[in-house]
C-alpha cells in the first residue's frame, strides 16, 4: 500500500469530541497491517540518515508512529504526556486547543543539547499541542528539531503555530 492509499483507511467521526468537529480517526489505519507498514515506511524514508537521536511522541496516538520511527532509525523515544503521568522531574507547558485548554509535560532530562529531535504526533489541526511540545523541547537546547504528523488538516492552518524556520512535514494532507 502506498501512503496516498492510507487516506482511504482513515474514518471520519462527526461531532467528536464535540458538536461541529470532524474527528479523523487513524485507529482504522493503524489496525490495517498494510496501512501501518506504509506509515512506518514513509516516516523512516523522511528521517533516516538525518542524524536523529530522539523521537518525541505526543500522548497518546503520537506514541504509535513515534515509537515505530524511533526503532526504524535507531533513535531513542521520549513521551510527552498529560500532567502527573511521568514519574520523574518534569517541565510543563499549557496551551489552547480548538476545544479547550490543556497542559503537557516532558521529563526535564529527556533531551540533551547535542540531540537531533523529531517531534511526532498523529494529526495537525490548529497546532496548539505540538507548538507547546516544540517550546518544551526547544527550551532544552537540542541541536535541531523537526516536526512531523501523519495527517494534516490544512484548512485549520496549524502550520502557522510554528516558526518559519522549522521543518514541518505531514504524510497525508486533507
Walk me through what this model shows.
By secondary structure, this protein is α/β, with parallel strands linked by helices. 26% of the residues lie in helices and 34% in strands. The protein is built from five helices and nine strands, in the order αββααβαββββαββ. It has a five-stranded parallel β-sheet, with helices on both faces. α3 crosses α4. The longest helix is centred in the first third of the chain and has 15 residues, at 33-47. The chain is globular and about 40 Å long. The model has no long low-confidence stretch (mean pLDDT 96).
Which helices and strands appear, and what pairs or packs with what?
Elements: H1 3-6, E1 11-14, E2 22-25, H2 27-30, H3 33-47, E3 54-58, H4 62-72, E4 76-80, E5 90-97, E6 100-107, E7 116-124, H5 128-138, E8 144-152, E9 167-173
Parallel strand pairs: 3-4, 3-7, 7-8, 8-9
Antiparallel strand pairs: 1-2, 5-6
Descriptive labels:
174 residues, alpha/beta, five-stranded parallel beta sheet, two-stranded antiparallel ribbon, 5 helices, 9 strands
Summarize the structure.
With 174 residues, the protein is of the alpha/beta class. The protein contains five helices and nine strands, in the order H-E-E-H-H-E-H-E-E-E-E-H-E-E. The chain starts with a helix and ends with a strand.
Amino acid at each position: 500500500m502506498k501512503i496516498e492509499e492510507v487516506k482511504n483507511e482513515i474514518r471520519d467521526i462527526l461531532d467528536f469530541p464535540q458538536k461541529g468537529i470532524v474527528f479523523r480517526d487513524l485507529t482504522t489505519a493503524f489496525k490495517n497491517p498494510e496501512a501501518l507498514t506504509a506509515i512506518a515506511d514513509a516516516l523512516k524514508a523522511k528521517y533516516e540518515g538525518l542524524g536523529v537521536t530522539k523521537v518525541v511522541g505526543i500522548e497518546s496516538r503520537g506514541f504509535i508512529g513515534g515509537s515505530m520511527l524511533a526503532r526504524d532509525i535507531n533513535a531513542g523515544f521520549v513521551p510527552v504526556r498529560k500532567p502527573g503521568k511521568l514519574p520523574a522531574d518534569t517541565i510543563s507547558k499549557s496551551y489552547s486547543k480548538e476545544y479547550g485548554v490543556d497542559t503537557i509535560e516532558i521529563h526535564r532530562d529527556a533531551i540533551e543539547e547535542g540531540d537531533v529531535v523529531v517531534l511526532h504526533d498523529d494529526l495537525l489541526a490548529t497546532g496548539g499541542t505540538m507548538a507547546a511540545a516544540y517550546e518544551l523541547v526547544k527550551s532544552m537546547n537540542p541541536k535541531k528539531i523537526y516536526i512531523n504528523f501523519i495527517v494534516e488538516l490544512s484548512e485549520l492552518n496549524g502550520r502557522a503555530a510554528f516558526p518559519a524556520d522549522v521543518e514541518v512535514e505531514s504524510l497525508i494532507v486533507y
